Batch of 2 targets.
Target 1
Amino acid sequence: MKTVALAGGVGAARLLRGLTKLVPTRDLTIIGNTGDDFTLYGLHISPDLDTIMYTLAGIVNETNGWGIKNDTHNTLNTLGKLGQETWFKLGDKDLATHIIRTKLLKEGKSLTQATAQLMKMHNLKTKLVPMSNQPVHTKIVSPTQTMDFQEYFVKNQTKPKVTNVIYEDAEKAEPAPGIVEAIDHAQRIIICPSNPILSIAPILAIPAIRRALQATKAYTVAISPIIAGKTIKGPAAKIMNSMGLDASAIGVAKYYKDTADEIIIDQNDASQRNQIQKLRLKVTITNTIMKNLKDSTHLSRIALKKQKRLVEKTQDSISLPARAKK
Amino acid sequence: MKTVALAGGVGAARLLRGLTKLVPTRDLTIIGNTGDDFTLYGLHISPDLDTIMYTLAGIVNETNGWGIKNDTHNTLNTLGKLGQETWFKLGDKDLATHIIRTKLLKEGKSLTQATAQLMKMHNLKTKLVPMSNQPVHTKIVSPTQTMDFQEYFVKNQTKPKVTNVIYEDAEKAEPAPGIVEAIDHAQRIIICPSNPILSIAPILAIPAIRRALQATKAYTVAISPIIAGKTIKGPAAKIMNSMGLDASAIGVAKYYKDTADEIIIDQNDASQRNQIQKLRLKVTITNTIMKNLKDSTHLSRIALKKQKRLVEKTQDSISLPARAKK
C-alpha cells in the first residue's frame, strides 16, 4: 500500500520504526517537518529529520528520544567555556550530522539531497523528505516575544504563555520534489503522533501540500499524540491548552476533523469515543504508547488496516485545521 | 623592548610561552603563519594560530605539541563512520575553536578579528595576528601532485618528494592591519624556531611585510629549528633536504643570512659556529630544546638580549631568502 507519513520528531520516529517494517521501502514516503530547523554556531540543524534518522538507524538515545546514544558533549562544553550559548544539548557524535549537512548545503545541495545523502550514510533506504527545500520557520508567539521552537522549548523550557503560532514563509514555500506526486499516488496518509500545531501544521501550511492533501483519494489516519491529557514527549498538551484548544483525544480529533478519515486514540481515552464519532470520524482505540519495536509495529499495523471512509471527502469539505491557517 | 615575532606552529608556540612572560603584552606582536589554513567539512582551520593559542592558554596537548589536552574524537570517528575523510585528527574540544572561527568569518568578521575574539575567549591578552586576512595557500609541489601542507604532512605523511613550495596568492595579499606598523616600530624581530620554508617564508612572501622587514631598524634574531640535522617537530629537515638545502644550522643560517642579524643555534651544533660567522651573522649557542617553561624563558631571554649589529643593514642588502621568493 503506497503510504505517505506526515512526521514530526520523537513520536513520529517511534511509529516509523514499526511502519518501515511493514511498508516496502519503495511504497513509503516520509514527509518530515522542518519548521523547527535552525542555525546554531553556523550549523544547519534539522531536529525532526535527525530524530527520525537516528531512530531508524537504531542509534537514537532511547531515554531522550532524540540525539545519539552514548554520546559525549565535549565540543558543547568547550563552546560553553568559550562563552557560547549551550542551551541546545548538542552531542559530539550528533555534531557530525550537522557538520555534514551544513557542508552539503554550502556546496549547493538542496536539503532534500542532503537528507538523502545523510540517510544513505546511515545505511537507510527509507525515503525521508523534508517538507520543503526552502526555509519555513515555526514561530511561537508569547505576550512578550516571538521565539523559535527550540528557543521556546529548550532555552525557555516552555515557560512563556503561547498566544499564537505562525509558520513564517510557509505560504511561499514549495514542497520538496516528489512530495505532491507521493500524496497524489498514495493509498494511505498517516498523520504520525506528533504535535499537531508544531509538527504537522507547518507541513499543512505549505499551499501545494495542503492542496495535494485536499485532492488525494487516500484514506487518512491520524494518531493522537495526546494520551489521558498528556504527551509522552514534547509540549503538545501545553501548547494546545495555551492556544485554547482542548488537550485531549477529542481536541486532537477536532483539530484533524476536516483532514482525517480516522483517528486512533489510546485505550486510556476510550471514554471519548462517542464524542469523537459525532465529528464524523472513525475512531480506533488501542495502545498507542510505543515502548519498543513491537508496540510500534502493532500501532503501525492498525494505522495501515484497510478501512472504508465514513464520509466521502470533497475538495470543499476537506480543509486545513483552522489553527494551521496563517 | 617592542618585539615582533614571526611564528609558525609547535616550535614557535613553545618559544612564545617564554617570550610572553618577558615582553609586556602591549610591546609584543606575534605574526602567525596562515599559509597552512584550510577548510575541512566546511570549517576554517588555522593550525598555527590554534597551536599558539592553545599553548599560551596552557591547554595544549604537550605530547603532540598541537591540539587540546585530554581531548576526545567522537565527532571525528562519527564522521569517519559516515564516510568522511578523517586524516586530520580533529578533537571534539578543538572543534569548538573551528566552529566559532567559521561562524565569525561567516558573520563578516576578518580573520584578525576572529583570532582576537578567540584569544579573548581563552582569556589571552597577547596580540596574535594572522599574517593576512586574505587567503595565502602554501602548496607543496611533488613530481606527481601539488598538495596543501596538511595533505602532504598528515594525509601523505611527508612521503612525496618535494620539488618546490609555492605561496599561492601571497603576492596579492595585504598584511593584516597593524603588522606593518608593528614592524616599523619594533626594536627586536624574532624569527621563531619554525620551519623556514613552510612557516616563515609564507609570511615573508607577502610584499608589504617583506618591505617592512627590509626597512626596519630592528635587530633581527632567528632561532634555528634544526638541531643536529633534525627537527623536534614537523618536517623542516625533510623539506629542506628535498629542496636541496642543507638541513643543518648552517643551512638555516644561509636561508636567513640576508634577513637576520643573528642566529641562535643549539649547543649540539656548536661546531658549525665558524662557518656561520663567515656569513657575517652573529652566532649564539645555547640549549634550544624547550621541554618546559624554564627552557622557553631561557631561550627567549637570549633572543631578547641587547646586541649590536655586525653589519649595518641597508635596504639593498636585506632581501628575502631566495627560496621564499615566488
Target 2
Amino acid sequence: MKKITAEILTIGDEILYGQILDTNAQWMSYELDQLGIKVVRKTTVGDNEEDILTAFAEAEDRADLVLITGGLGPTNDDLTMPTLAKYFGSDIILDEHVLAHVKDFFEKRGREFTELNRRQALVPELAEVIHNSLGTAPCTWYERDGKVFVSMPGVPHEMKNLMKESVIPKIRNFFNTPVIYHRVIKTVGIGESFLADKIKDWEDSLPSHVALAYLPSIGHVKLRLTAVSDNREILKQDVQLLIDQLMPLAEKYIYGYDNTSLEEAVGQMLIEEKKTIAFAESCSGGFIQHKMTTIPGSSAYFQGGLVPYHNQFKIDLLGVKTETLEKHGAVSEECVIEMAERVREKFNADIGAASSGIAGPDGGSDEKPVGTVWIAYADGKKTIAKKLQLTQNRILNIELTEISVLNLVRKSLKA
Amino acid sequence: MKKITAEILTIGDEILYGQILDTNAQWMSYELDQLGIKVVRKTTVGDNEEDILTAFAEAEDRADLVLITGGLGPTNDDLTMPTLAKYFGSDIILDEHVLAHVKDFFEKRGREFTELNRRQALVPELAEVIHNSLGTAPCTWYERDGKVFVSMPGVPHEMKNLMKESVIPKIRNFFNTPVIYHRVIKTVGIGESFLADKIKDWEDSLPSHVALAYLPSIGHVKLRLTAVSDNREILKQDVQLLIDQLMPLAEKYIYGYDNTSLEEAVGQMLIEEKKTIAFAESCSGGFIQHKMTTIPGSSAYFQGGLVPYHNQFKIDLLGVKTETLEKHGAVSEECVIEMAERVREKFNADIGAASSGIAGPDGGSDEKPVGTVWIAYADGKKTIAKKLQLTQNRILNIELTEISVLNLVRKSLKA
C-alpha cells in the first residue's frame, strides 16, 4: 500500500526570525508517524501572502496532507485565513457559531470583546470549521482532489487538543489509515550499543510487522516498537508477547513505558511499597528533589531533604563525622554513605539517598578529577554506594547524577 | 540597500519524523537576524537524495545564503556530502587534512579508527573545507553566482562553534553586511504591557537607526535594542546612551544584559557584596537551589539549604514554631518568615530566603487556592515577605516561585 504523505507548514515571522522555538512541528510529525503517515517535509514561512501562497502550492504538489499552524490572530499581520480563502478561490463569510464562541470566551474571562476580535469569526466559505474549545482562533479543514489541508492555531495546547479530539480522527477516517500500534519501553543505566548487544537475538527474531527503533537521550535509551496491521487488539497482544520475551534479557534496565518518567516510576514504586524517601544532595544541588517534586502527589512519599553544599553543614546539620571528612574528603564512599544514612534518620524516612561529587568546571584534582561523583542508597537494612566517572560539563554532570541516584533507588527497591 | 536573504535547511529523517526537536534552526535564524540577514524560509527534508536536490534548487532560487545542517555522519544513510557534490557537479576527493584530523580525533579518545570513519574525509573538490575542531564531520562552503551554501554538522555544539568561529565572519565578509549592534536588556517582575507603558516616552524617542523588540518569556521580559550603521564603536555609544536614559524609568526591573541569567546576576551581586545565602524551600522543592548551583563557582556564596516538604521537618529541622503552623498553617506569612530567618541561622548565612505554597494540582482550598505562594527574605536586619497568586499549573508555579524568590533577593540586595 502506498504510504500517505504529509507536509507540516508553520507560518509566522516570530518562528522564522528565531524568536520562538517551533515545538509544534516536532509534536505533529511524531503523531503523524504514529498514524503511519510519512512526513516528507517541514516548512516555515513568514507572514507574507506571496510566500504563503507559494508554500501552499508546493505542499499540495508534494503531499496528500498539509497541516498548517500559525498566523490566525486577529491582527493585520495574521494572514493565514485570507490567504487560504484566496488559494482555494473561496469567499470569506462570518461564521455565527464561531462568533458566538468568541464572544462567550471573552465574556467568561471578563475581557472586553472588540471589533478586532470579531475578525476571528471570518472563515473561508468552503472550509469545514472545527470547533476550538480552548481558544478563539477556529480550526479549518479543506479537501480538494483527494488531498487535505488543515489550518490550526499556533498556540501549542490549542493545537494539540484539536489534533487529538478532532483532526487525527478525521485524518484516519479520510485516508483510511491502517492501524498502527506503538509501545515505548524506557530503559536507564545502559548505553545504546550495550543494550543492542544484550537484546540482539530478540531483535533479530522480531516478526516482519513489528519494527524496533532505538531512541537515546541523556542517561536513557528508549526502545520503540511499532506494529502495523488492521486489528488493534491483536497488535496489542503481539507487542505484549514480545515485551514478555524481552524481559529476561533487559528487565533490570526497564523502568517504564510510553510517557512515564524515571521520577514518576520511582514515585510509583514508593507508593506501591508504602515507603518514604529523603535526599542529601551535594553536587546535584537540589536537582533530585526538584525532579521528584515535579510529580503531582509526591508529598505522599517525599519527606524532604538537605543540600549541605559546604562540608561544615554535612557535619553540623546532617551528622557526618568530622573524621570521615578529614580522612576521606567529601567526595568519598565513606562520606556519601554517611550522608545517605543520616538524611534517612533526620527525615524519618524509609530510604535515604545522597550525592557528593565534583561537578566542575573547577575543583578537580589528579586523584579526583572533574566528573568524579559518589552516590549512595540506605534503607536501614542495607547501604549501597557507587562511584561514577562523568563528564567535564557541569550541567550534564548534575543531570547524570540525578538519573544515577534515582536509578540506584529503583534498582534497590526492585532487589 | 537590499536585504540579504537566507534559507535554513535541515536534513535528517530523525527531525522529519519528530524524534528530535530541531533547535539548530532557531539558533541560526536568530544569529542571521542579528547580522541583518532576512531568513525567508526554513525547510526540513529527510535522508533522500531526490528530496535534498529539490530542496537545494528551491533554496538557491529563493535565497542568497543557504545554511545546511545534518546528514554528515559516516553511514550510508547520510547523504548531504555526496548530494552537494552532485548538485554542484563536483568530483569527490579525499581531504588529507580532514583525514589526519579524524584519525587524531579518534586516537585522542582511545577509540578505534575504522574504514567507515575514513568516509568523513571525502569532500566535494570545489568546496572550501572549514575545520571542525569539535567533531569529525567537516564543514564545507560553496559559492556560485554570488550565492553561498554552507554545510555544517547537526550536532548543536559543533554547529554553534563553527558558526561563531568561522561561518559568521565569512558571511559578513562575503556579503559585506552592515554593522549591526544588539544589546538585550533583561527585566523581571513586570509584565510586558506594564513595562511598555512605563517606558513609552523613551520608546517613542528612539532614533530611527535603533529598533526595540519586546521578547517575553516565563516571568521575564527582554528588551532588545538593534542598531544599524557602519561604525560599531559609535553604535555601542549610541545604545549605551539610550540605556542610560532608560534607567530612571525601569532600573528596578533590570537585572542584566545579553545572556546573563537571573541566578547569575544574583550570584554576581552576592560576590560583589561578599554575602552568603541559604534557602528553605517547600513548594519549590529544591528548584531554587538547583538553579543557583548550575552556576560555576556558586559555592563561593551558596551555603546550602533545606527542603522541609512536610510540616514536621519545618519544626524539627528548621526550627519553625509549632504554634505558628497550628495557628496560621504552612502557607502563611508567619511561617515563611520563620523559614527564611531560621535557614539563615542554620546555614550561618548572611541571607536566608524561603518559599511555602500550594503548587497543585491538589491541596487548594477556598481560602488558599492552588497557586497561593508565600516567599520571604531575611538578612538579620530586615525581613520581607510577599504573597504570590500564581497559576493552576504545578510546573509553572514551581518556576514562577523560583524567579520570584530570586527577584526578591535581588531587589533586597539593591535596596
